[in-house]
């Protein structure tokens, strides 16, 4: 229970009754104090007649104001003056240390006060606000006419969610922030934010997006008229009814610097680009009708791609058949999504569950056909859906040479998945002859066991080529403790893995005895060099030559669950590390051990 103590001349104070366990408790009350001051224009010195004062607190060196821009200021001023009297004691914590005030006025940047402690007593805090016009402007049609009644939203850099359009309408849950509408002249204005922002306008006729600098250069926004995209989906040469299709705005989709945890068909992964901090997302999803037709309205103009979305079982999905083009403002783009190819079918015997409470075995979305030869800069993958009975199928696979890869994981009943087997099979898809489109039937596929390394096992023989072209053998490092990190550029199971490894390398104990090596299963040395330079890494980076990839994967049991091995000075496995946070303690233990 919380006991509140109040007195007209003192700040209210709350006391947790669980602390009142003695015969007598003394509570010291603090006298009320007043904060007053003026709010003026910084350039003219004149008092600002209308303004508001918000109350916040200091947390981790930052001023935090819990009420959002839609909430009226807690303190109103008059004639450029304000006065505030706190009502209760501020309970400082390890996170929040003191109070803070902020002054807001239309057309001005926010100003924040110094920290205020209860012990400071009465104080005078004046604010001088700087004018700004960068959060206002005029919204116009392409012909120059004002857009009346458009809905506008302002999204700041520190907002929790990125603004997102769902089927052409800004999601309230994903686009929070101050909102307004344009007047009869197309004019709009927001309370001036004190950080980078983006203004988003939506109307039945179109959309407009402007970042802070764009709005600063021109006080007007031009509405882009919505485009329309429709078409038909064909699978296996026939009408595909009831299928889910998604539309992606290509220019709006930053190329990921890491690959998702499962391969997506027909998707190219590139290294290096990062999403803009204030990027606006657009998401479109529809179902095909009985004729396999689909339609998307309110599409942002630009390059678009429509893909069929297919389930791999459970929470895993992939995107297969696709087509794209340029969606022009006010125009309709018509697409036919079809792919000429054969079906590839087969069956793999999944391991039986050992106990009734075990999770069923699954591929976790990692079953795919990879076109050969493998490219160092992009991968063409066609994902396979694996049924509960072990049957798999891929539709409309173009003629060519492929590698069928599949990692099978089985649960142990404790919400964890363990590698149980792998498939690696060469598949030839013949060219379709006239009138003949029979499926490629692979029959029963053997599931090969996984070679997993355990503590005490000798480290497998390993020969690599470093970025300078020098061959390196793992055996040459005997006598040192080696942290061996396997990864692939474009796929990393932990988003901040590289940063954490970088910190670990710089702070590793007994640096002369500990060597860290990152082995990238990558044939393109230039690609690795760009990766290393971009992240300013300074430990040894080695490249695996293509013909050794499968052998190394098999020798070390690399199946995207284990990422690092700690090898002792004697050449044996000291630890199998699945989290970089546990690497440093493992190294210290290895240094202290025999």
Strand content: 35-45%
What would you call the shape? globular
Kindly state the percentage of residues in helix: under 10%
Report the uncertain regions: 68-72, 252-276
Average pLDDT figure: 78
Radius of gyration, in angstroms, nearest whole number:
31 Å
Number of strands: 44
* Number of distinct helices: 5
Helix-strand makeup class: mainly beta
What distance separates the N and C termini? 56 Å
Q: For the largest beta sheet, what order do the strands appear in spatially?
A: 39-38-42-41-40-43-44
Q: Biggest sheet: strands, sense, closure? A: 7 strands, mixed
List keywords for this structure.
5 helices, 594 residues, 41% strand
How would you describe the overall organization of this protein?
By secondary structure, the protein is mainly beta. It contains 5 helices and 44 strands. The chain is globular. The protein starts with a strand and ends with a helix. 30% of the residues are buried.
Topology:
Elements: E1 2-7, E2 10-16, E3 35-41, E4 52-59, E5 62-64, E6 75-76, E7 81-84, E8 96-104, E9 111-112, E10 123-124, E11 127-129, E12 136-140, E13 151-156, E14 164-166, E15 169-170, E16 179-181, E17 187-189, E18 197-203, E19 206-211, H1 212-217, E20 220-222, E21 224-225, E22 227-235, E23 238-239, E24 244-249, E25 281-287, E26 293-299, E27 302-313, E28 316-327, E29 332-337, E30 342-348, E31 368-371, E32 381-383, E33 385-386, E34 391-397, E35 400-411, E36 417-429, E37 440-445, E38 463-466, E39 471-473, E40 481-487, H2 497-506, E41 514-520, H3 525-535, E42 541-543, H4 549-556, E43 564-567, E44 573-577, H5 583-592
Parallel strand pairs: 3-10, 3-11, 12-20, 14-25, 22-29, 30-37, 40-41, 41-42
Antiparallel strand pairs: 1-2, 3-7, 4-5, 4-6, 4-8, 8-9, 12-17, 13-16, 13-18, 14-15, 18-19, 19-21, 22-23, 22-26, 24-25, 24-27, 27-28, 30-34, 31-32, 31-35, 33-34, 35-36, 38-39, 38-42, 40-43, 43-44
